[in-house]
Amino acid sequence: MSDLHEDALSAYLDGELDAAARAEVEGRLAESAEWRAILDEVRETRGALRALPQVDAATEFWARVLAGDDVVDLGATRRAKERRPRVWKVVAAGAAAAAVIVVGVIAVPERDKVAPAVASFTNAHAARSSVNADVVSNLASVGVPGLGR
Amino acid sequence: MADGIPTWEEVARDHGRFLYTVAYRLAGNEQDAQDLVQEALIRVRKGLERYEPGSLEGWLARIVTNVFLDEMRRRKRRPTSALPDDPDWVLPPAPAADEASRELPTDLQAALAGLPEDFRVPVVLCDVADRSYEQIAASLGIPVGTVRSRIHRGRRLLRGVLTEGAA
After folding, report:
1. From the CB of residue B78, how many other CB atoms can be counted at a distance below 10 Å?
2. Which candidate in A62, A119, B62, B79 could, as Cys together with B139 as Cys, close a disulfide (CB 3.0–4.6 Å)?
3. Architecture of domain B1-91 in CATH?
4. Does the residue A76 lie in any domain?
5. CB-CB: which of A16, A48, A70 is closest to B133?
6. With an 8 Å Cβ cutoff, is B123 touching chain A?
């Protein structure tokens, strides 16, 4: 009986002991007022726990659940509210990135179709050259047949 | 129901109250219990194809317990965010001493919610969900001897709290 631990009393009440262990507990109960007192307390607590009524959620809760989609969509619950922003942040960030890409593709002209402002550049160059003193040296060299070489 | 396997709607309709009761006794408050039930039903829906006809309520108790334990682990990983939003998880409502005798279920529920989860879970599975020690051990992945010890200690702790409250 030296191995018998007090938790055998709960197992005794729960019908979790084999015949030998049950007999051992009953032997200890017969000789120990302390064990009998503990057994009474545990029996009472166990009885109170088992007598706790079933509880149920509000009808609206079950209506939502039985609607089906809410079981997949946890949006009605507080915890879902905690989690969702993170999910939505990821989704929103992805959507924003996609939007930027789309806008970039549509709004920005294609590089190979960019027409350089040659006319205005040439005009500006000509104007600048015209006010410089050394106009000749700014002229582009032109090959003339019969001259040089 | 085909081949003894219920549809998801049948589970929710016919066993929802059992599921909610276990969730409520584990969580200790209505809002968290609803969260647990919803998450459990998601897992039920995903797992029905693999469900082998047997003790449906045992299976449901196991699922809702796993959801509860996952949630507890999640909150422990993020204690600073969980604490301000969910004080009920950490500090169950303290029963008023003068209500102890006349509102035993409420008082007992509060005491149950105040038990450390290591004791609360086996006690709820045993006394609310009516699972055997072996089933509880399998659900929690702990030895049967540990289940036995925790159930006993849990009940004694509850007794102590209730006695103090009534004094």
Report:
1. 10
2. B62
3. Orthogonal Bundle (1.10)
4. yes
5. A16
6. yes
